[in-house]
Amino acid sequence: MSESARDLRLQRAQALVGGSVADIDTPALVIDLDAMERNLQRMAAFAAERGLRLRPHAKMHKCAELARLQMAHGAVGVCVQKIDEALALAAGGVNDLYISNQVIDRAKLQRLAQAVATRPAVRWAIAVDSTEGIERLAAALAVAGVQTPGALDVFVEIDAGQNRCGVAPGDAAAALAAQVQSHAVLRFAGLQAYHGKAQHLRDPAERSAAIAHAAQAVQTTREALARQGIAVPLVTGAGSGSFLLEADSRQWGEIQPGSYLFMDADYAANQPLPGAPVFEHALFIRSQVMSRSADRAVVDAGHKSHAIDSGLPRVAHPAGLDFANGGDEHGILRPVQPGGALPGLGETVWLIPGHCDPTVNLHDVMLGVRGGLHRGHVERVLAVDARGALG
Amino acid sequence: MSESARDLRLQRAQALVGGSVADIDTPALVIDLDAMERNLQRMAAFAAERGLRLRPHAKMHKCAELARLQMAHGAVGVCVQKIDEALALAAGGVNDLYISNQVIDRAKLQRLAQAVATRPAVRWAIAVDSTEGIERLAAALAVAGVQTPGALDVFVEIDAGQNRCGVAPGDAAAALAAQVQSHAVLRFAGLQAYHGKAQHLRDPAERSAAIAHAAQAVQTTREALARQGIAVPLVTGAGSGSFLLEADSRQWGEIQPGSYLFMDADYAANQPLPGAPVFEHALFIRSQVMSRSADRAVVDAGHKSHAIDSGLPRVAHPAGLDFANGGDEHGILRPVQPGGALPGLGETVWLIPGHCDPTVNLHDVMLGVRGGLHRGHVERVLAVDARGALG
């Protein structure tokens, strides 16, 4: 399989280090490192102040270097959604990985079991929501020869209101916890309770109501577990749109925000929760105008360079421009005000992606810029280690 | 930059060759080779019958092996949208490449000029829609030392009704053609006239009206060129939704369909043009159920495995299921009929992507299956050589 053209592109990115932002090829994913580090510190400070464990979701950045940076700033580890993401980050030196998702496929579970067997220095954890899933997990560990008691942390996921994965709160969850405990090699680590749909409810009152529902689901499950004499070591969940609410509820001991590090246009469209830490946009697409006519400027960034599942990108710079979808490879800019200025051919246009997670997954690298987007320099290239790690 | 986890995934894909479809890790992009080859032959037969040059758009599959296969079945070459796509396919042995898009960035043009200088066995072509673009192109070739007359084919793109790129039809286009001709190293190769928005107009009458408008734009431009004594060697354009109309108009000498090879759910939702060749779905996502509850089955494929810009995937198998968006990593299936059957944990679910181009761009490889999705075997691994080639 020919890799040479891709390798040359990666070398081209590496050659930018130390150089000017103006030399970055377009379209490219650029991190404003100063803004990102402020976000990093604000979330770390929040978690420390509330006495919460912080386990950021690395499905967002898929980057071992950023996961290690988060852990150097107070995070206990990171979450991922896929076993192949976990393996990619472990290969990049991340030593505490929680797959906050179900895996039922025997071949995938065998990959995880193999990793548990061969990398005991990494702390591994996974979620379950079915009897079958627990039995297959235990069987895979047995095949891999893992016998250490509690070698793998297992969280029982409850449906906290999202109607996606997760067992019903209460007795059904307690039965799964007891089943986990019946396998010595598994440690019942607690409950996974994440309400994804709540994250983007614009109205703070609606978000509060959704997380109150999730907190009740946790409480109901705690009580069912208590009736069986099972303690809940930890409840983990929460995202960048709601984590203040989970913290206030005191039902969660660990929070899993991901997007706070980069912030995207969709999260920024939320009305903020009173008292919540504020995060800055730190992820941008550098694009440039490659076609101009009297009423529009067309940039070289379409939805192969930014995901549009949660809305189109916003134009960060220059001001006063609307972004319209131009397809896979184009974005169409028009002035917000009739007669407003349009950038000229070759001019740089900075975009804020609608949704950071799937946008990052389109790119092999992110370019970390120090000193601002306009006069800064490229400090380092951050590899998207788990890009395309779907399995 | 750590590549080992990715390399292992690619090796895992290679190890599937010769094996059963049932062993393909999920979610994965799978090509039904039998269906794809029928599509390949139908389009080749259509072009031959009509005496049209066929230049499929390789922005769709980004795969050198498939581009070479298309050329072995009558295609004169392929189109791409980006210089880095062209370089990736040239590295994979494709020797006739047309960048059917504008490039204004001097560094990118230098990459192209370098390729023209160092790979004379490849026929290179590009589109332009501005004076500045033509001058920068000529300057880049001069820097690279290219002096051969007509070393690079240049098409002037006219706005055929899409309101994206392209100069206005008529005199403005003729002026650009004359400017191209003023540079000996450039050959004025004709007009690029592609109406992207027309491709997905569901109603055949609306599609016909849009392409009639585009044909008029071509005719107007031919006349303006004739007044300047400039012949039009070729008009190139058309996509999988409209190519019959461009063929019938007799204004186009070359067609550029891409999606016909794989067909996606969005194109299949078009009402067919009477008399148009029929193409089959040949691109699928193999996914599996990883969570079940009474009213839904959750599969392990979300919009990190399939693009949703043109709608959600359809469920190809089992029958009777609706697909709802479950976010980046999940898809939520419910029965179309209340009380209908749901697949169980671990069961395979085949999806037809909404839009093939950006879906392929999410994957490193496509698995080519022979003998059908259910009982077939993996015949070969097709690399997405130009995945992420954005520049």
Note down, in words, how this protein is organized.
2 copies of one chain form a homodimer. By secondary structure, chain A is an alpha/beta fold. The first copy, chain A, has 2 domains: 9-31 and 279-383, Beta Barrel (Lyase, Ornithine Decarboxylase, Chain A, domain 1); 33-268, Alanine racemase (TIM Barrel). Helix content of chain A is 32%, strand content 22%. Chain A contains 11 helices and 17 strands. In chain A, the strands form 2 sheets. In chain A, strands 1, 10, 11, 12, 13, 14, 15, 16 and 17 form a 9-stranded mixed beta sheet that branches. An 8-stranded parallel beta sheet of chain A has the order 2-9-8-7-6-5-4-3. In chain A, a hairpin with a 2-residue loop joins strand 10 (283-293) and strand 11. In chain A, helix 5 (106-118) crosses helix 6 and helix 7 (171-181) packs across helix 8 (204-227). The longest helix of chain A is centred in the middle third of the chain and has 24 residues, at 204-227.
